[in-house]
Amino acid sequence: MEGRLWTILGTIGGHGQFWLILSHLVLTVIIVLILAKLSTRKLQLVPTGTQNVMESYIQGVIAIGADSMGEKNAKRYMPLIGTLGLIIFVSNMMGVIPGFESVTGNINFTLALAILVFVYYNYLGFKENGAKKYLGHMMGPVPVLAPLMFPIEIISHFSRVISLSFRLFGSVKGDDMFLMVLLMLVPWVAPLPGFFLLTAFGLLQSFIFMILTYVYIAGSIMMSEEEH
Predict the structure, then answer these.
(1) d(Cα 112, Cα 86) in Å, to the nearest integer?
(2) Buried (b) or exposed (e) across 56-92, using 16+ Cβ within 10 A?
(3) DSSP state, 96?
(4) What is the DSSP letter of 2?
(5) Inside any domain, residue 57
(6) pTM score of the predicted model
(7) What CA–CA distances, in Å, run from 182 to 175, 177, 195?
């Protein structure tokens, strides 16, 4: 990945872009799996340690979606969105640690996440509403406006892929470059406030990605929910 002079994993397999993306992605997934294992290894009625942290995280994810689609639906789609949030957050935090890269700082990875969300929420829209109703909803309230509204809606939906991917990529890549320049210009102790700032930005980007995913899913399924 551009912008890093040296990485720990790069010393093992070289600093080629493919190796850096793959190795840091595998490391990110391993960390998430370890967190999941630690939180479920010894379940207790009164949670402590990692279990307490992860249960609080799950409750927070559900609370994020409850406002847009209700608690029942928020719980239904929590596994996907909670997993995306963990992957993005761990990856963002990895980029804050000198010697490691954020896979979210690569446009190919963020684009893949955005396409995943795009395909999934449209699949739910067709599944929950049927093709006729789902596509008909994009044609506006009045049939005469359909030739105008339908192309606009299609463009709007595809623009979400660009919005999701470039927002995350741009923020993380900018943070990586800021951190690199900071470490090159000042001693190691001085950048500490910058590390805290980058941590907050990484958390914020994870939150934004999750809430937008919830909103997109809600928009695709709430047509059938309104009938009930």
Answers:
(1) 16
(2) ebeeebbebbeebbeeebbeebbeebbebbbbbbbbb
(3) H
(4) T
(5) yes
(6) 0.86
(7) 10, 8, 10
Q: 200: closest CA among 114, 96, 58?
A: 96
pLDDT at 187: 62
pLDDT of residue 190: 60
Residue 47: how many other CB atoms lie within 10 Å: 14
Segment 89-134, tens digit of pLDDT: 999 998 888 788 889 989 999 999 999 999 999 999 999 888 888 8
**3-state DSSP call for residue 137?**
helix
Residue 215, domain member (yes or no): yes
Distance, in Å, from the CA atom of 198 to the CA atom of 206, rounded to the nearest integer, reads 12
Q: Is residue 43 part of a domain?
A: yes
> pLDDT at position 78, please?
94
- Counting the structural domains of the chain, the total is 1
19-28: Cβ within 8 A, 24+ apart? 20/101, 21/101, 21/103, 21/106, 21/108, 21/109, 24/91, 24/94, 24/100, 24/101, 24/102, 24/103, 25/91, 25/103, 25/109, 27/94, 27/100, 28/87, 28/90, 28/91, 28/94, 28/103
| pLDDT tens digits along 35-44 | 999 888 888 8
Domain that holds residue 118: 10-227
Q: Which residue has the higher pLDDT, 180 or 57?
A: 57
Is residue 2 assigned to a domain?
A: no
| Ordered alpha helix ranges (H), 77-185 | 78-96, 107-129, 131-137, 146-185
